Amino acid sequence: MKKSLLLLFALMALTFVTQAQTSNNKSSSSKNKKEKKVKIHKDAKHIITFSLMSDVHNEEDFELLLESPQLGFDLSYSKQTKGKLLSNGISLGWQPIATADNEIETPGYEGTLKAVNQMIHAHYTVTVSPFKQKRFQPYIEGIVGAKGVALSSSYDYDDPQQTDVNDIPYFSATLNYGYAGGFRLRATELIYLDVRYARIQSGDLKRITEIDVDANGELSYSTDEWKAPVGYLRAGISLSF
Fold it and tell me: 238 vs 129, 149, 196, CA distance in Å?
């Protein structure tokens, strides 16, 4: 009888200890999850955005942009610091405009000469985003930097023993500045949708209006004065970590 009572008390004690440990484990697990969630928000300070972009030549007719967009690519980076309203960053963009290529059959120089007309930009940005921890994060940006037009050429020989030739026959750039407004929409803790529209004022710029490659592989082009479009639209995916 005494042995049975001792065994019963031992089982009861073991049950209470087990329940206490389970409760503590659950409490610790819940606390760790909360700390992890808070840590994710604290560490989500670096933002890299990969986007498609297009200049807006006529802001009064967006249907034209949808019918025949001249798509390019934009890569941007910014760093958010907890407690600070402003974030600094950079934006790099590349937008091909036209491509010309021609098969060259000159003896000893057989190959393909390709020329690409393109626009590029490099901007420094200052972003104001007051709702950094929200699912929907509207923001505004100040922009300063440069926009350029470049003509690049590449001569790809058919003979693999010959070294291909790459060149930039023409480059023109101008300073620009402006502002932008957009939003980030959180899909997961890591992935956001980013949409931004910018209005940028640029100085005078010469663009390439015509590219020609003759049968002998001679590249020729013509330029004229050009005012870069004020608007440009960007949409893509950003990663926050």
Answer: 15, 27, 12
